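FORM 7B: Structural annotation worksheet

SECTION A. Query
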Amino acid sequence: MKRRLFCLFLYLMISSSCVTAETLTFGIVPQQSAKKLAKLWTPISRYLSEKTGVTVLFSTAQDIPTFEKRLLAGEYDIAYMNPYHYTVFHQKPGYEAIAKQQGREIKGIVVVPKESDITSLDQLSGAILAFPSLAAFAASVLPRAKMAKEGIDITPKYVSSHDSVYLTVSKGLFIAGGGVMRTFNNTAPAVREKLRVLWSTPGYTPHAIAVHPRVNADLRQRIQQALINMDQDPEGKALLNTIRFKGLERAENKDWDDVRDLNIKLLEHLL
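SECTION B. Predicted structure
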């Protein structure tokens, strides 16, 4: 009897291990609402499941600080993260970049209401501005650094997502806020039409798609190949269009050296 129970226990342990190995979580940085991200990225996760032979499940977080904590804890097997996040979480727990948006750089923007009479950043001095989070690279870190360098004293208010920035600025709750061109173009037309771009940053290497070190080399290669082949497949190309990507290209760690050169220390305490 004891032997049969032990064998049953061993079988369940092995079965559980196999299920875990065949199911991967794909964490998406919460630049937009969870509902919108699920609509955009769940079909992409299903596509990767079909192409790699493992189950890939969409995941995100309620806000960017929570996403950062989950990255640090290694909760995502695959993650789409901002450039600064990649430089941090490559160090710990060791995420390794495999792909990035093809032929694009990320540019941060500062938006104002369309009818606003503000025409330059210095007119924002003394104001409270909306940003997605402290460490949102292009939408928060770069604009705030620019204004600090120019002596433009603003108070940041962190509102959890890019969409929240655009919505609150469009409603006049803030006179300006930070975002990026991709999410600005992806936000609801009724909101976008009430805004205009006041200023944009220089371009940097865009978001990384990276895998946790527990993902073995063979599976990592299959995921990478599926991603970079998407624009060669009608179904994959259609999915890329929904997130406004022309395509994905192979990436490696050194591609983010331009971000490292900025010597940003905001999340250094996590390491």
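SECTION C. Observations
The first helix runs from residue 2 to 21. The radius of gyration is 20 Å.

SECTION D. Sign-off
Analyst initials: ____
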